[in-house]
Specification:
By secondary structure, the protein is α+β, with helices and mostly antiparallel strands. 20% of the residues lie in helices and 21% in strands.
């Protein structure tokens, strides 16, 4: 993993999320009731080293990318195809 530089004046906290399907991405799925208002949210608990024990991680976001999944899949396939033809 490449180290990330801190930015002066910003918090610089980090959260490392694993690749859940082996495709270079980590998928978030909102677990709030259907039709909710406000941001989407997913929470999970995981083991931590420092401090030792279990910690809850909560991630919130504004947009729903399900509508873009097909377009993203096509763009990813096109990018992979282009990378295969580069000199």
């Amino acid at each position: 993993m490449k180290p990330v530089s801190d930015v002066p004046g910003e918090c610089n906290a980090r959260l490392y999320i694993g690749d859940d399907y082996g495709d270079g991405t980590a998928t978030m799925r909102c677990k709030l009731p259907a039709g909710h208002t406000g941001p989407h949210s997913e929470s999970f608990t995981r083991s931590t080293f420092l401090p030792p024990g279990r910690q809850t991680v909560t991630i919130t976001w504004e947009i729903d990318e399900r509508a873009d999944e097909e377009a993203c899949a096509r763009a990813s396939e096109e990018l992979e195809a282009d990378e295969g033809t580069m000199p």
